[in-house]
Amino acid sequence: MTDPLGEPLLGPVDVAVVGAGPAGAAAALGVLRAWPDARVVLLDRAGFPRDKTCGDGIAPHVGDVLERLGVPELYDDHEPVHVLRLGFLGGTDAVGRMRRPARVVPREVFDARLVEAAVGRGARLVRHRVRRVGPVPGGVDVDGVLQCRVLVGADGAHSVVRTAAGLAPHRRDRTAIALRGYAPVSPGREHEQVIAFTDDAGWPAYAWSFPVGDGTANVGYGELLPAVGPGPSKARMLERVDELLPGSADGGTRWAAHHLPLSSGRGRQPDGRILLAGDALGLVNPLTGEGIHAAVRSGALAGLAAARAARRGTPDVAGATYRRALRAAMGTHLLHMDVVTRLAVDPRTVAAGLDVAGRDPRVFDAFVDMGLADGGLTPHVLTGLVRRAGADGLAKALLAAVRGRRAA
Ligand SMILES: Cc1cc2nc3c(=O)[nH]c(=O)nc-3n(C[C@H](O)[C@H](O)[C@H](O)COP(=O)(O)OP(=O)(O)OC[C@H]3O[C@@H](n4cnc5c(N)ncnc54)[C@H](O)[C@@H]3O)c2cc1C
Predict the structure, then answer these.
(1) CA geometry: angle at 202 spanning 298 and 339, to 5°?
(2) How far is the C-alpha of 200 from the C-alpha of 322, rounded, in Å?
(3) What is d(CA 29, CA 378) in angstroms, rounded to the nearest whole number?
(4) For a pLDDT cut of 90, what percent of the chain falls above it?
(5) CATH second-level architecture of 13-79+104-171+264-330?
(6) Ligand 1 centre and the CA of 249: distance in Å?
(7) Distance between Cα 279 and ligand 1 center (Å)
(8) Are 309 and 302 in contact (CB under 8 A)?
(9) Mean pLDDT of the chain
(10) How far is the CA of 54 from the centre of ligand 1 (A)?
């Protein structure tokens, strides 16, 4: 599937994509959907299939994006998981049946299938670790081995393309760290995704158990990095899994941790020929840590914008075109999530929200859309919170959240 390491690359190409995770593969598919003859190169430092540290939870909405890219039923052979159980401090505050099931697909499988689909459409997959990206007349140069008209940076949380696009590294106060492993699934948790929030240091913090469907579960724990000093050790995070979901880490293997760059309410995509998607742009949901939906959605939009701009001979407008498309598709969600995150600074707000969601399926559904994909605050959520906290309490909290946004 890949070119052998070190083989000299041929350029120029129309679009180069750095990183072949969900954002990069979706970007390549997006280009080829709009422009089937485009010359697209997909660069990744890893050979596929490869693991990616993740909870492997695939929101139902991911399938919608892939279907629009012409890749339906990519992982339908994996068992659907209908039930989501959300707990806070050891209690169960909301358990419900999702309108559409999620799937738990190990990234070794999910990412390889997506890459294979992109290659099947005509993308060329090349194994190469990108180090330098810079402008050249008429395009963008990659390490002196490849030139393209438009480049999509989908190289994850520690993106090198992000810096080349002129953006600062992800802010530490907007970055979480999470540990995951695979363990025999605990009895009773075979058919449900469980998330257990805690209000300890590192809030918003939670442990999870997601059944893979083969007798194991992907289990883990994540929290916000502290403002200063080192983040939690692997041993400490493993302890937290066991404290919040007792027994779920027993017999676990393949423990690994990784950073999550959380969304901040504004897409910061700059003008020009370098587009950023997925974790490289910092689109992970700040409350739930979900990033795959945002990765495929933004990747698909970046691919489309790149294809249109390159094909029309106006590659310089690619950044602005993509920024507008991203704002139209995800702007409201990102804004609402920012307000929700500010409301959730007080963990009691989350406890109240879960309590309301546990009583009203419409609020539960809205939480699923907001936490796993691109939904926003709905009238049902706001009405439920008003009933729970009182109009005065909610108005004060919202006011503080909006003031916090302005001050940031
Ligand atoms: C522990 C943990 C649990 C999570 N659980 C979930 C979950 O259950 N559900 C969910 O939706 N999200 C989850 N997330 C978030 C999710 O993993 C990411 O948001 C998602 O992987 C982002 O996709 P991406 O394509 O932007 O980046 P990635 O998946 O990180 O892909 C980036 C690709 O770029 C390549 N690359 C990097 N640097 C270079 C370079 N210099 N040159 C060439 N290639 C390069 C990498 O090899 C990789 O293939 C979790 C994250 C963590 C850390």
Answers:
(1) 50
(2) 39
(3) 32
(4) 78
(5) 3-Layer(bba) Sandwich (3.50)
(6) 23
(7) 7
(8) no
(9) 92
(10) 7
What count of other Cβ atoms lies within 10 Å of the Cβ of residue 165? 23
CATH architecture of the domain formed by 172-261: 2-Layer Sandwich (3.30)
Residue nearest to atom 21 of ligand 1 (CA): 292
Does residue 1 register a pLDDT over 60? no
Model confidence over 287-320: pLDDT tens digits?
899 999 999 999 999 999 999 999 999 999 999 9
> Please, which residues have CB within 8 angstroms of residue 315's CB and are 6 or more apart in sequence?
139, 149, 150, 273, 309
Alpha-carbon dihedral of residues 324, 330, 336, 341, nearest 10 degrees?
Answer: -110
172-261 shares the fold of 13-79+104-171+264-330: no
How far is the centre of ligand 1, averaged over its atoms, from the C-alpha of 156 (Å)?
A: 5
Q: Which of 29, 45, 170, 241 most suits a substitution to test ligand 1, by most atoms within 8 Å of the C-beta?
A: 45
Every domain of the chain and the residues it spans: 13-79+104-171+264-330, 172-261, 333-407
